[in-house]
Write a structure and sequence with these properties.
By secondary structure, the protein is α/β, with parallel strands linked by helices. It folds into two domains: about 1-90 and about 175-265 and about 270-310 and about 320-325, Rossmann fold (3-Layer(aba) Sandwich), CATH 3.40.50; about 105-170, no CATH class. The protein has 13 helices and 14 strands. The chain has an eight-stranded mixed beta sheet, with helices on both faces. The protein has a four-stranded antiparallel beta sheet with strand order 2-1-4-5. Strands 13-14 form a two-stranded antiparallel sheet. Helix 4 (about 110-120) runs parallel beside helix 7 (about 160-170). The longest helix has 18 residues, at about 190-205. It is globular and about 65 Å long. Mean pLDDT is about 90; it is low at about 330-340.
Length: about 350
């Protein structure tokens, strides 16, 4: 496969009031051209920090990349200057942020913000940039583009603002699009429309997408592969269907168990993962998930498992065989399609 992004042993930390903590600790994965990968995990797992590290934006938030490699099309990003990264951000790699109302400038019209993004990366006239902005707004499914370009962010609905953010991200036809919880604040109908838009754009432009979400159902719908993160570490990397067919890590299993099933019994309480994710300055010894894991043994509490290859998958757990022996399938596939998501 043609890897567009390769991350090896990424370590990113922040200086906080309790000292320096590692928000991402030894993360490694790649994204292939034209592929959608989803990073899934609870809040505090390190999902957003991973994406901000790729964009080299952690340095503007009191953060620092301590170690590791981030290669985009073979070019090492961690050693590039801020000026060099500015040419890459929004051009070759674009990002859609979680809350469009805070990401968009409230004092400028939609047209002004989209044309600025176009002019920053292209040597064209303002008239031509405005024409491209109108086409982008039409592309992302906003009706009456000319009128919308004259409006301000507060005059648009949440779904429209998110579409505007996608239009800005697509202004320079990026090769990699990073979407950080792009549908969190939207209702389910608008969420479905935004996800379908992203799928269409990926197919039409052969664009790679890195989607960050806490919703395992969204990952099931969107991803070729899923990366499960917990407390700054990767727990499992798997093809989507394989993960839903049989999770190899107890944390993956816990996330799947918490998803409502279409064929489930009414009135039955959903399963939940007991406890909560640890604070970054209080990470337990051994496996980080061990305090919450029903399979944990003394070895889990004392020794940290490494991410090991299991066929076409990777998992960091001492008790994969035990989990496989249970053969407890939570969400299965039928006719090649995922159900229960």
């Amino acid at each position: 496969m043609d890897a567009i992004l390769e991350i090896k042993n990424l370590v990113t930390g922040y200086q906080g009031k309790d000292g320096f903590v590692k928000a991402v600790d030894g993360v490694s994965f790649n994204i292939n051209r034209g592929e959608t990968i989803c990073i899934v995990g609870e809040s505090g797992s390190g999902k957003s920090v991973t994406s901000m590290s790729i964009m080299r934006l952690v340095e503007f938030e009191n953060g620092k990349i301590l170690d590791g490699e981030i290669k985009f099309n073979g070019e090492e990003l961690t050693t590039k200057s801020n000026d060099e990264m500015r040419k890459i951000r929004g051009s070759k790699i674009s990002m859609i942020f979680q809350e469009p109302l805070t990401a968009l400038n409230p004092v400028f019209t939609i047209g002004k913000q989209i044309t600025e993004a176009i002019l920053f990366h292209q040597s064209i006239s303002k008239k031509e940039a405005l024409k491209q902005a109108e086409e982008l707004v039409r592309l992302v499914g906003i009706s009456d583009p000319k009128a919308r370009l004259k409006q301000y962010p507060h005059e648009l609905s949440g779904g429209m603002r998110q579409r505007v953010m996608i239009a800005i991200a697509l202004a320079s036809e990026p090769e990699l699009l990073i979407a950080d919880e792009p549908t969190t604040a939207l209702d389910v109908t608008i969420e479905a429309q935004i996800l379908e838009l992203l799928r269409t754009l990926r197919r039409e432009r052969n664009m790679s997408i890195m989607l960050i979400t806490h919703d395992i159902g969204v990952a099931a719908e969107m991803a070729n592969r899923i990366i499960i993160m917990y407390a700054g570490k990767i727990m499992e990397i798997s093809d989507t269907i394989d993960l839903f067919d049989q999770p190899l890590h107890p944390y993956s299993k816990g996330l799947l168990d918490s998803v409502p099933r279409m064929d489930g019994e009414r009135g039955v309480q959903l399963n939940s993962i007991k406890g909560s994710i640890p604070r970054l300055n209080e990470v337990p010894k051994g496996c980080r998930f061990s305090p919450r894991c029903p399979y944990a043994t003394d070895k889990c509490h004392d020794e940290e498992p490494l991410l090991e290859i299991r066929g076409n998958r990777q998992v960091a757990c001492w008790h994969v065989e035990q989990l496989l022996e249970k053969d407890e399938l939570q969400i299965i596939t039928k006719g090649g399609e995922l159900i229960g998501s």
